[in-house]
Amino acid sequence: MSNGADILRMLKKQQIESALARAGAAAASKGPKEHKFWDTQPMKKPGEEPEEPGEIETKTIDDVKPEPYNMPPGFEWCHVDVMDAAEAEEVYTLLSENYVEDDDNMFRFDYSKEFLRWALTPPGYSAELHVGVRSSKGKLMGLITAVPTQMRVMGSSIKTVEINFLCVHKKLRAKRLAPVLIKEITRRVNRMGVWQAVYTAGVVLPTPLACCRYYHRSLNPKKLIEVGFSRLANRMTMARTMKLYKLPDNTNSANVSAMQPEDVPSAHALLSKYLEQFKLAPQLSEEEFAHWLLPREGVVDCFVVKDRNGKVTDMCSFYHLPSTVIGHAKHRTLNAAYSFYNVATTVTMTELMRDSLVLARNLGMDVFNALNLMQNQEFLQTLKFGIGDGHLQYYLFNWRCKEITPQEVGLVLL
Ligand code: MYA
């Protein structure tokens, strides 16, 4: 089996594009790439190193037009209600057929309907901010979503939305529909009196707040090799590869258990305190914490260790994001766990995450993915994670501040 660098190739397509964009950026004499749309947006300019953090453009609700942006003829705006079974199905179909693929078009993200419901309905969500585009025949052809979150950015507490699931049907690509979707969601969010947003993307746009990388840990190396996600390293047999990635049958910590509703106050306090050390982190209410971390089968798992008084001392969590294996005779789905929020106080982070790998493997995951943010750098090598191909850029809309390192990022988006 290969060591790290070429182990696992599954990444958001844009992450690969990001590498290309960086290569382009390296042609320094040409200066920063021109972005017809993004250069008009309230974003920090490339190379700008602001002394004082703050808003780039200040507006009031009266400055924001009440009517939607014009759509090209034959298309109209809608909002989608993911709590409605038929509409959830439409969103699922759009994304499962048109969302992010890897560069070789071998894998495509396959967010489940239950996952989409979870991702889009935290406390305070508004279906108005799940913006769709329909064709004249009523077919859903585009999407962009926002959900509210209070965010701490280097000492400032800011009301923000998290933007996700920007998707344009493959038949409508490269027609400048994405900027219209982005402008329309900005308008709707602004009309609610919110002026900042966070989002991640593989592509390099003006201008990232942080640049993180994905790492991957094989849990089922045989299947990963069969589907072409990773390959056998020189001089490695399948048997030796499987031995290399073998994990214990059970967790090291005997009393690790799935988080229950009664654990929420204690686990919420633990995570909130932990996140204070990072320059970018969500400020979750107890209700939001319960939404994001209470286990939902096949969507999100959270495990806790408690002391004898029932106080949560350690927690680990991951979400389930499978990918479709496109056109494979034997395997339809690649099951991936993504590291979410982890806090270790009675064991090391490495010990906690080894248990997390065991728990994910026992739930049938084929691979465990983690970004190099928060404390993750501590365990990646020891636990045999391999580095991914690209970068995941973090962005903050309409807020200027200095770039931060991955270790200063305390936010995981879905
Ligand atoms: S990241 C996931 C993005 N989705 C995918 O990768 C799925 C597969 N791809 C597609 O569906 C399409 O290729 C998309 C672009 C929709 C991505 N973020 O319409 P176009 C710019 C931002 O001709 P298309 C996620 O969901 C591009 O640089 N901008 O292109 C977070 C160019 O602008 P410029 C992007 O390929 C989303 C313009 O679009 C992205 O048909 C955060 C071209 O438009 C991207 N990932 O469609 C959104 N990709 O000329 C921002 C391309 O200037 C939110 N572009 O370079 C901002 C905050 C808003 C709220 C603010 C509230 C205060």
From TrEMBL:
Pfam families per UniProt: NMT, NMT_C
Reaction(s) catalysed (UniProt annotation): N-terminal glycyl-[protein] + tetradecanoyl-CoA = N-tetradecanoylglycyl-[protein] + CoA + H(+)
Enzyme class: transferase
Alphabetical list of PROSITE patterns matching this protein: GNAT, NMT_1, NMT_2
EC number: 2.3.1.97
Keywords: Acyltransferase, Transferase
Entry keyword annotation includes Transferase: yes
PANTHER family associated with the record: GLYCYLPEPTIDE N-TETRADECANOYLTRANSFERASE (PTHR11377:SF5), N-MYRISTOYL TRANSFERASE (PTHR11377)
Biological role: Adds a myristoyl group to the N-terminal glycine residue of certain cellular proteins. Myristoylates adenylate kinase AK2. During the asexual blood stage, may myristoylate proteins such as ARO, CDPK1 and GAP45. Probably by mediating protein myristoylation, plays a role in the assembly of the inner membrane complex during the early stages of schizogony and in the formation of rhoptries in the late stages and thus merozoite egress.
Protein name per its UniProtKB record: Glycylpeptide N-tetradecanoyltransferase
Organism: Ectocarpus siliculosus (Brown alga)
